[in-house]
Amino acid sequence: MLAFLLYAVPVLTIVVTLYIGFLGWKFYLDEVVRGGDPR
Amino acid sequence: MTILDWALLALYFAALVLIGLQTIKRVENSDDFAVAGNRIIWPVFFGSLAAAFLGGGASLGNAGATYSDGYVYMFAFFAFGLQTLLVGAFVAPRLKRYAGAHTVGDVMAEHYGRLARLLTGVLSIALCAGILGAQALAIGTVVNATIDVPTVPAIVIGMAVVVAYSTFGGAWAVIQTDMLQFVILGVFLPLALIIGLFRAGGAGELVANIPDVHTSFLGDWTWAAFIGVFVAFLLGETLVPPYAQRTFSTPDSRHARLGFMLSGIFAFAFFFVTASLGLVALDLFPEIESDQALPTVVMELMPVGLVGILVAALLAVVMSTASSYLNSIAVVFTKDIFQPFVNPNVSPRQRLWVERALSVVVGVGATLFAVTVPSIVDALLYSYALWAPTVIIPLLGAVLFGIRSTPAALAAIFVGGAVTAWWTWGIDEPWEITGLIAGVVCNLVIFSIVAVLRPGGPAVDPVPAPRHEEVF
Q1: Three-state DSSP class for residue B41
Q2: Which of A10, A30, B12, B428 is the most buried (most CB within 10 A)?
Q3: How far apart are CA B217 and CA B219, in angstroms?
Q4: What DSSP assignment string belongs to B401-416?
């Protein structure tokens, strides 16, 4: 079980991080690079 | 380090500066500087909060402690993830009721008045200054342990970058650089574990080589020691100023709840990864000092190119925490001390420049103290132990139950702080009960009794004038 977790947890962590990073990148483009919605 | 490694490390610093420059135009007023105009959606809140709370302790410290004591330290560290989940579920969404709030002091003032705001502000600044100084020292430690650059120039360069982007871009820059740092640490430290496992002959081989005591739940620890550390992680950093400030930066309670809870779940995985890196170090390098566990794995096992990125990842861990605390000091001082007690008529534009000037002054001060008199950083870190036994119970009483008893909050803050100090440094923590536990218990008892005896209070504070919104 521990041997399985030693591979599964880091792989899952990388996948989640990349997905959140992608959403964060879209937010960065919208809000910072393009200046966001007019307030 | 090869030229490729140095180039990748330089690229990381250049990206931080670029983000800092790009976010300048988003900072037009104090709301932008403190809470990024309340526009931070849940994925960004999740990533930036995780980057802020995953500091040197969660990476270098966790790997080193697991190297010497085993997974028991990680299990105790899980209390932090549990606390983050609970705060995300029950407290963070309610914080969004305090429209216009930037700091914990804003909430305390709304319920308990100006003196509670002042005390919370002073405790917040002492806590943040200690942690900021510790992160500045950690920058030097990471660089010195990995690429053998002397500590002083490493701290100066690292902190100069942190101060530059925090000063100009405020919360926008801190949150966006946190996101970059989150991606770097969330991808490359787990990747380092996978590579380390292969170098150790596979996960099965590693588990077979590690002493059983290192993978058991309690290891060599007693239950009393475990509970002491568990409670410290459970309460010690609850809603410290940067986490509360980050929560205020979300647009509504849904984003606050989702981002906070997901970052708590992520913390469990990250703690497992860094703890397991400690076990890889124990298997392959059994003769090193425990605090060298993570740097040794990075420098000895990683291929060319990855070393530079992993040094950047370790720096990302400490720099993201440093910038969050630096930004909080500037915002807390301005909102909880300068505006209410020094210049109530300060304009929003002036407030922004006060916050920027403070970022520079505090950043330079923290760097100087870290370089010349690290004992001052050590002294400030004592304030870390005072946060939970003073502010947390009154804060939870306010946010969860709407309590407005000023005498209860003030008595609890004074008694909790005094008992913690006396228990820790006066009688040296008898019966393996930590000062934090003794202080929190006394704080809770005093707060409950006084709140029942004196339930209401004239909790009026015109700065800011919070507009309550019903969000549930």
Answers
A1: coil
A2: A10
A3: 6
A4: H----HHHHHHHHHHH
Answer whether A21 sits within 8 Å of B179, measured CB to CB: yes
B44 touches chain A (CB under 8 A): yes
Distance from the Cα of B208 to chain A's closest Cα (Å) equals 10
ipTM of predicted complex: 0.92
- Quick one: DSSP state of residue B303? P
Domain that holds residue A30: 1-39
Domain ranges of chain B: 3-380, 403-458
Distance from CA of B22 to the nearest CA of A (A): 7
How far apart CA B292 and CA B286 sit, in angstroms, is: 11
**Helices and strands: H and E segment counts in chain A:** 1, 0
DSSP string, B116-127: HHHHHHHHHHHH
The 10s digit of each residue's pLDDT in B281-294 is 999 998 888 888 88
The CA distance from B232 to B238, in Å, is 10
- Give the model's pLDDT for residue B470: 36
Q: Which residues of B409-442 are buried (b: 16+ CB within 10 A; e: fewer)?
A: bbbbbebbbbbbbebbeeeebeeeebbbbbbbeb
CA B73 to CA B65: how far, in whole Å? 6
pLDDT-above-90 percentage for chain B: 30
Q: Which of B180, B132, B182, B122 is nearest to B158 (CA)?
A: B132
Q: Which residues contact B385 (CB under 8 A, 6 or more apart)?
A: B236, B420, B424, B435, B436, B439
B152-162 pLDDT, tens digit per residue, is 888 888 888 88
pLDDT at residue B295, as a whole number = 85
Q: How many CB atoms lie within 10 A of CB B468?
A: 9
pTM: 0.86
pLDDT, tens digit, for every residue of A1-34? 888 999 999 999 999 999 999 999 999 998 888 8
Instruction: For B97, list phi and psi in degrees, rounded to 5.
Output: -70, -25
Q: Per-residue confidence at B104, pLDDT binned at 50, 70, 90?
A: very high
d(CA B379, nearest CA chain A) in Å = 36
Cβ distance B384 to B236 under 8 Å?
Answer: yes
Helices (H) and strands (E) in chain B, counts: 22, 2
Whether domain B3-380 has CATH 1.20.1730.10: the reply is: yes
Number of domains in chain A: 1
Beta-carbon separation of A6 and B203 below 8 A = yes
Does residue B82 contact residue B264 with C-beta atoms inside 8 Å?
yes
CB contact under 8 A, B44 and A24: yes
